[in-house]
Amino acid sequence: MTHTSPVAPAPRKTALIIGSGIGGLSLGIRLQSLGFDTTILEKLDAPGGRAYQKRTADGYVFDMGPTVITVPHFIEELFALERDRAALTTPDYPAQVLEGERVREGESGGPRTREYVKLVPILPFYRIYFDDGTYFDYDGDPDSTRRQILELAPDDLAGYERFHKDAGAIFERGFLELGYTHFGDVPSMLRVVPDLMRLDAVRTLFSFTSKYFQSPKLRQVFSFETLLVGGNPLSVPAIYAMIHFVEKTWGIHYAMGGTGALVRAFVQKFEELGGQIRYGAEVERVLVTDGRGKPVKRPTGTRVARGVALAGGEELHADITVSNGDWANLYLKLVPPQARLVNSDVRVRAARQSMSLLVIYFGFRRDGPNDRPLDLRHHNIILGPRYEELLTEIFGEKVLSKDFSQYLHVPTLTDPSLAPEGHHAAYTLVPVPHNASGLNWDIEGPKLVGRVLDFLEERGYIPNLKERLTHSEYITPDYFEGTLDAYLGNAFGPEPTLIQSAYFRPHNRSEDVRNLYLVGAGAQPGAGTPSVMMSAKMTARLIAQDFGIHPDLLGGPDEAVAQAQPETVGAAD
Predict the structure, then answer these.
(1) Helices (H), 66-110
(2) How many CA atoms within 13 Å lie on the side-chain side of 249?
(3) 525: which DSSP letter?
(4) pLDDT tens per residue, range 402-446
(5) Three-state SS across 294-363?
(6) Separation CA 32–CA 82 (nearest Å)
(7) In the prediction, which pLDDT does 310 show?
(8) What tens digit of pLDDT does each residue of 458-470 get?
(9) Please, is 161 exposed, middle or buried when counting C-beta atoms within 10 Å of its C-beta (0-12, 13-18, 19+)?
(10) C-alpha–C-alpha distance, residues 207 and 140, integer Å
(11) What is the pLDDT of residue 370?
(12) Minimal CA–CA distance to 295: which of 333, 339, 330?
């Protein structure tokens, strides 16, 4: 349905977004709905950033980054937006989102989402393999979880009931009530500290889970998920126990065609709303002046972002500039040091960055008559013989360990279109130290790739893999540092430790430069596909506040959100 704008901004404000990751695209859509004219500048030849999708000459399609989609409602919300109808004042979690049943089969996207991309639920969410060959199918079903706990560690069943109750309370407060809170000042943080202390959400996640489970396996099952957003379970705060409930409440989903199909759908929506995107547009610096338009000489007084300069010398000017890139790279390379007081070189370099990744993208022939059948799921977590020790070596000591854990993604079990007929496309992701390690990945990369592929074959995860292998390539921390401009090759931005969370995480409104904003994994609330979409909404609200956007623009048609869910299973959207 098309609506006449209640307010006709004349002239419209302009915005530049650096980077076309999911966070940048989400904010681009929201800025168009706020009445801005927005241009997204992407260094690469296609959209996505970390969510870039690669197509190979031999017919494989690989999502190079995120593959786990949850909270389909966030996606539906974006596709329901309209030009000059921002829907920023409507409830973040409408009643039907909270009260409906989770989608377990069929199509899981809402009615507007279905116009752009097909989402389907994935069950189990993950199959978690332990080093002794046993496994745990996590599917968010409490009865299934209880049954598997009884088989694996029956003495921990009572602990699970307590964990379920306490993690639920953290989810209620930390996600549903505080999830969209921008901690831009100390009082905003201090107001929530008593609740977090009461919920025991400030101790480390692994320590929190260890209160409830004696089994090392169950401690791993209920703490590993933070690794998928760059967090070390031994150091992230226990508020991240809410991930368990986020997944349990709304499920895990897959976009047919891969995450790249979702990215392309966001681009389509952005362009339909009048936004523009430029590829091969590498930003060399953010243009900053004082309040009178003069060059900035010192990091005091008024400093204003005026636009960007591209690598080729072209200058683009806009009312606001937003970075969807790496936080450290923004301040160390793009914003001049004389314009920075809070985000000084010393502060940025001192921040702890998330770990990096080695990711192998490979294709192989499907089961032949002489092959043992493939017994994997869409998402597979393959844990090594050590857990706490391995995490300490990756995050703390920054050494390449003798063993490894990995996340093996086989999307062609759900979507055969990503590989040539008769073949599978897969990737396996191995957490490794970022480039402060000093490791030479030209040497270590091929060796680790060989060890990982040998492991998958020898342990029987993919029988006869070497004979069946038809395609193989990989990325290392050097890809994150060189291609994605991530400081030290980090894969997820600042590590989400307690002292780098909430107020202490980079702010979505720059503390140093007026009209400069951040969105995505490096900003609040943090990394992960749902979080970067939340980040976009938080940043949009700050921009609306700063620019005094007319209240009529902040609302939206009732159906934009109130009818943003499938009629039968609203909770999943």
Answers:
(1) 72-79, 95-99
(2) 23
(3) S
(4) 999 999 999 999 999 999 999 999 999 999 999 999 999 999 999
(5) CECCCCCCCCEEEEEEECCCCEEECCEEEECCCHHHHHHHHCCHHHCCCCCHHHHHHCCECCEEEEEEEE
(6) 8
(7) 98
(8) 999 999 999 999 9
(9) middle
(10) 22
(11) 74
(12) 339
Return the number of other C-beta atoms located less than 10 Å from residue 153's C-beta: 19
**Other beta carbons within 10 Å of 3:** 13
Kindly report, residue by residue over 63-81, the tens digit of the pLDDT. 999 999 999 999 999 999 9
Mean pLDDT, residues 5-17 taken together: 77
**Which amino acid is present at 438?**
G
For residue 447, give the amino acid letter. Answer: K
The residue behind tokens 């991930």 is: 243
Q: CA-CA distance, 398 to 375, in Å (whole number)?
A: 33
Question: How far is 143 from 157, CA to CA, in rounded Å?
Answer: 11
What is the pLDDT at residue 555? 84
Task: Give the bridge partners for 208, in sequence order.
Answer: none
pLDDT of 251 > 90? The answer is yes
> What would the two tokens of residue 446 be?
């091929």
Inter-residue contact 191 to 205 (CB < 8 Å): no
Q: How far apart are CA 129 and CA 405, in angstroms?
A: 10
Name the pLDDT band for 373 (thresholds 50, 70, 90): confident
**Would you mind telling me the total number of residues written for the chain in this entry?**
573
Tokens 């390379």 identify what position? 333
Number of C-beta neighbours around residue 300 at 10 A: 10
Contact present, 208 and 200 (Cβ < 8 Å): yes
Could you tell me the two tokens for 22? 């999911």
Q: In the block, which residue shows the tokens 């050097």?
A: 478
DSSP string, 115-177: GT--EEE-SSSEEEE-TTS-EEEE-S-HHHHHHHHHHH-GGGHHHHHHHHHHHHHHHIIIIII
Q: Is this structure's pTM higher than 0.90? A: yes
Q: How many helices (H) and strands (E) does the chain have?
A: 20, 19
In 3D space, the residue among 388, 344, 355, 352 whose CA is nearest the CA of residue 499 turns out to be 352
Distance CA 512, CA 340 (A): 5
Residue of 240, 223, 242 lying closest to 176 (CA atoms):
242
